[in-house]
């Protein structure tokens, strides 16, 4: 016999309040992105007519995007960012996997000591000045490796991946070893194919971190040809002249307001991550749940 749960008026009121609050929070989250996109495609006449604040443009134009791509500055910075993100994420996942897999084995000698050292780095660090000195003495300044090697492993992500490996059935690895697989073969042929959710999740974490990083670029880079897109965007915001940052004549930029060019740059710097995220979303929740640290 099935029972139908009757809902009272208070239940409907609570549901309405929850959905209304979630809708408001969603709109508050999406509005800044919507405003940036709208400002980047609004003609200059309408921007000036509305005092620089446009919600629904009556006309659309791609002049700002044509302008920023007509300069070599933005495409170069975008290409540098793509290289840093792809190479950095690959190196991050490679080293994190090679550290997490042996640390997931309880029989590893010195395992607890190494884990204590990893946790220690989450609480204490040498600071920015010692880190800068190390990067300088290793001749990494003004190279893209200065943006990759200092943050090669995240202790938090390492612990998540280690816990994920610990949750995998031990019988699978034992069967692989019975069939003649060594530790390296077991890792690549058995463990990694089963670890797609956690790899995709941590890859997303690492990739977004590399894509949005700008402080390391400010610290370690002086060559403008090596600066990622976020550093260029930051310089466009803090410097009074957008033309000097884009290496164009001031007369060329008079046709567009600086704010419109900045908004178009924000869209270019943000859109690739927004496009990639939906393809990894299905792995995100599963990877975090299975790889979460148990208390």
TrEMBL record:
It is a multi-pass membrane protein. Residues 78-280 form the ABC transmembrane type-1 domain. SUPFAM superfamilies: MetI-like. It holds the Pfam family BPD_transp_1. The chain crosses the membrane at residues 12-35, 77-101, 113-134, 140-160, 187-209, 261-280. The keyword Ligase does not apply. InterPro entries: MetI-like, MetI-like_sf. It is found in: Cell membrane. The keyword Membrane applies. GO terms for cellular component: plasma membrane. CDD domains: TM_PBP2. One of its GO terms (biological process) is transmembrane transport. Keywords: Cell membrane, Membrane, Transmembrane, Transmembrane helix, Transport. Belongs to the binding-protein-dependent transport system permease family. This is Carbohydrate ABC transporter permease. The lineage of its organism: Bacteria, Bacillati, Bacillota, Bacilli, Bacillales.
């Amino acid at each position: 016999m099935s029972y139908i749960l009757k809902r009272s008026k208070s239940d409907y009121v609570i549901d309405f309040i929850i959905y209304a609050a979630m809708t408001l929070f969603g709109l508050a989250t999406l509005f800044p992105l919507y405003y940036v996109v709208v400002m980047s495609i609004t003609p200059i006449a309408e921007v000036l007519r509305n005092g620089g604040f446009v919600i629904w443009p009556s006309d659309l134009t791609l002049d700002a995007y044509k302008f920023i791509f007509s300069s070599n500055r933005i495409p170069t910075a975008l290409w540098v960012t793509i290289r840093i993100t792809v190479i950095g994420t690959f190196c991050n996942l490679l080293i994190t996997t090679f550290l997490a897999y042996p640390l997931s084995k309880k029989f590893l000698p010195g395992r607890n000591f190494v884990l204590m050292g990893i946790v220690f780095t989450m609480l204490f660090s040498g600071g920015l000045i010692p880190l800068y000195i190390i990067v300088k003495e290793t001749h990494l300044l003004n190279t893209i490796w200065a943006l990759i090697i200092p943050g090669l492993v995240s202790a938090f992500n390492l612990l998540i991946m280690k816990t994920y490996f610990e949750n995998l059935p031990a019988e699978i690895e034992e069967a692989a070893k019975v069939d003649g697989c060594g530790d390296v073969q077991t890792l690549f042929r058995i463990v990694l194919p089963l670890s797609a959710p956690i790899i995709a999740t941590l890859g997303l974490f690492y990739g977004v971190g590399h894509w949005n990083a700008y402080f390391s670029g400010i610290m370690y880079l002086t060559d403008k040809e090596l600066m990622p897109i976020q550093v260029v965007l930051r310089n466009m915001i803090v410097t009074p002249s957008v033309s000097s940052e884009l290496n164009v004549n001031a007369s060329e930029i008079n046709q567009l307001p600086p704010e419109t060019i900045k908004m178009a740059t924000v869209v270019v710097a943000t859109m690739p991550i927004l496009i990639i995220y939906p393809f990894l979303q299905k792995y995100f929740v599963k990877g975090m749940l299975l790889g979460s640290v148990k208390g």
